[in-house]
Amino acid sequence: MMTATAPKTPKLYACVKRATKKTTQIKDIIKSSFGNETSVPQTIYDRIQKNINSGKEINAFLKVKLKDGSSHWVDTLFTPGQPKNNKTFSVKSNIINEQKLTKLKKLYRTLVNIEKKVSVNQANKYLDGFLEAYQINFNQLSKLI
Q1: Cα 132 from chain centre
Q2: CB 10 within 8 Å of CB 24
Q3: 8 A C-beta contact, residue 77 and residue 141
């Protein structure tokens, strides 16, 4: 994971601020805060939602669309919040070098195509098989970089 030298965008912080409200649709907050990039499969958002709802930390790669129209890939760690603080989750992210993402971007394109042509459920099955073939879990996708 590479740490960004560029300043973090207000959108990343907005995600954390708006997430303090209790919600069952965490993925909707993430999608709206991160710019709802269509290159990120619904399958990824579903896994983030499932892990946070289960009280588990999850690492995911997302593409963030900035206000100026540019976009960046970020390595993002989602941590479930503390019920006593009424916080649903918190986010830490670092911009990563897009050229290192060849395998990941190919995987995401494949998942998006499966979701469009078949279903999100089938994309989840494909992702499970992909992870099994590489003998990694979802949080270890960074090993592909």
Answers
A1: 20
A2: no
A3: no
Alpha-carbon Rg for the chain in angstroms: 15
Q: Which residues contact 132 (CB under 8 A, 6 or more apart)?
A: none
In one letter, which amino acid is 130?
F
Other C-beta atoms closer than 10 Å to the C-beta of 133 total 8
Please check the confidence at residue 118 and state whether its pLDDT lies above 90.
yes
**Structural domains for the chain:** 10-144 (3.30.450)
Give dist(CA 43, CA 46) in Å, integer. Answer: 5
Closest CA relative to residue 75, chosen from 11, 136, 139: 139
Tell me the per-residue pLDDT of 54-99, one tens digit each, with 9 for 90 and over: 889 999 998 887 778 788 888 889 888 765 555 677 778 888 877 7
Q: 15 near 109, Cβ under 8 Å?
A: no
Q: Are 47 and 60 in contact (CB under 8 A)?
A: yes
Q: What is the pLDDT of residues 30-55, one digit of tens each?
A: 777 766 667 889 899 889 888 888 88
Give bridge partners of residue 63 from the DSSP assignment: 73
